[in-house]
Request: fold
Amino acid sequence: MSIRRFILLAVFFLLGFAALFGACSVYYFLRVRQTDIYLEQIAYLKDVPADPVVVFFGDSHPAMDIRTSVLGPEYLNAAYPSDNLREVALKAQELLVLYPSIHFLVVPIDDHVFGAYRTEDRNFSGILHFVSLRDALRLYGFHPLAIVESVATYLVPLAHPEHRQEFVRIFKQDVAALFTGEIPERELFWDEHCQLSLRSDKVWTDLPQEKRDELGKGRAELQLREPIINEELVEALDALFLIAEEHGVDVVGVRYPMTPAYQRHAASHHISAVRDLLYTYPFIALLDYEQLFDEQRDLFQDEDHLNASGALLFSRRVREDLQSLLVEP
Reply:
């Protein structure tokens, strides 16, 4: 094959690939992003219908365990699965500008809050839909590869493997719907109260004891592996308190309910160092609910999340405990 012919074939291949990638990207933006639950939350946070006074932040624990439907319109849940303290600080900073009515920030004080489990996630492409790149870099620091990955994912979502997987999933559903006329509903979705919910309501105690112990051990080892305290996330919590001070708001710490299976294995890790560090911060209140449902294990869906019934009971308890804080500043 001549060099000229090779170059022509290469050019045609690249043009074809670019056209296909472009078509897939258009489909992604028009179809896949319409079902993105993270972007749904960001859109909601930008236009909350009521004036929030108390805002919950954090990962899947507050995202799944806090039910604002029983708390009232003055409560807002800005938590999202896998959010770390950097995203907590960034969301808080933006929400305090959008909603001057906010008086209290509720953040998780679970034992993995400073851990490697959360520190290693440096892709901040999602939060760029809510804050500026400059603000994100201030919290995430200068990690060149992470910056390139995050900005590339934000601008061209299909550059990231997770988005490509989601693209394939939705595309398969749409192709199947052409023949069946049905599109399956997502397991994780936003309900009519703008709460993150699961369609299947699991009960932890339906599992055999041996399986529960295995899952509790696995979860504790994943979340609490060393280093259990990482300076990047300590600095993020420092930044959150500075933001709170600048806006004249208070910070409440909450330790969320865990199953005894999780707690047993967590105790073998260096969690006392995490708790000692957290106690040095000027929280207006520290609410520890870790053992709240030790005798009501059927209120959990897995080793560290409540099911629908548990979340409702827990949210009512949290509301009672926070009522004394809801006073005019």
Notes: The chain has a mean pLDDT of 89. The chain has 13 helices and nine strands. Residues 41 and 78 are 8 Å apart (CA to CA). The radius of gyration is 22 Å.
